[in-house]
Amino acid sequence: PRPKHNMQGLVIKNTGSWYTVKTDDGCIVESKIKGNFRLKGIRSTSPVAVGDRVQLVNNQDGTAFIAEIEDRKNYIIRKSSNLSKQSHILAANLDVALLVVTVNHPQTSTTFIDRFLASAEAYRIPVVLVFNKTDLLNEDEMRYQQMVMNLYETVGYHCLAISAETGAGVDDVRALLKGRISLLSGNSGVGKSTLINKLLPTANLKTAEISYAHNAGMHTTTFSEMLELPEGGWVIDTPGIKGFGTFDIEPTELSSYFKEIFEFSKGCRFNNCTHTHEPGCAVLQALNDHYIAQSRYQSYLNMLEDKDEGKYREAY
Ligand code: GDP
Ligand code: ZN
Known about the structure:
By secondary structure, the protein is α/β, with parallel strands linked by helices. The chain is built from nine helices and 15 strands. The chain has a five-stranded mixed beta barrel. Helix 1 packs across helix 9. The structure holds guanosine-5'-diphosphate and zinc ion (ZN). The site of zinc ion (ZN) has 8 residues, from helix 8. The site of zinc ion has 8 residues, from helix 8.
């Protein structure tokens, strides 16, 4: 259909110079931003991102200008470099991040999971843990997986067990993603591409990645895209977004990104308690009483120590 004059839509692709917008009435419109377009408070090499809801003003030739960006509920950014203050918005308005993990082949560490969860909390993005490759697990590994799933369910994260290879449980993933904007994350080799191919039988992911990753004139860092699911909804498919990159938080803030530690910390005697040595620390008490898992507390300490060394905390 031919686009109407003023339209609203969703940014589904960003090549660095053009934004592809799917309008609410189903048109695909190639759009640009005006030269001096700046988003309040954010200095970015690319102020518009996939997932942004925008208002378009039509040009005569079928392209459009982005006139306005709706307020975002969240967004993920990456610093362009350590030297410049510029940052790059990778995606906006994420409804959920799926963290694909595997108990074996390869094993995802709980440290990695906890770092990812903490950074997702900082970005206010809900996470669902997807345990993949269940078809490969022996009985012991099955039991271990159940234990890990119980741990994270207790903390407050929904967990799914699937096999992207056999298709077991993939319907649960479909139901979860329907009508939402989602990010698929996880270490390399856990089965993200296999899962996406299962969800989008028409997508040939590998081919797509190669065609833009090796396009010489194009900075891969500014390229991002969302793939539309047959059931409705979008999966962000951007090379390099596996986690949330680096972020910097105060030691006293960190505990608020560990759901259960945060709950117990409300009972600490000091409100700037770091939960490491302080008298009257309700977190240490809860740890001692086994209400907080050792592995979670250890991950908390690891992230706390990163800060002491003056490093950025890394999501993974
Ligand atoms: P990615 O790096 O996360 O995108 O991982 P891939 O999707 O490329 O998968 C890595 C390897 O694991 C490939 O050889 C897949 O065929 C295999 N794989 C992915 N999911 C499963 C699964 O559920 N079961 C089994 N047995 N193999 C899987
Ligand atoms: Zn404390």
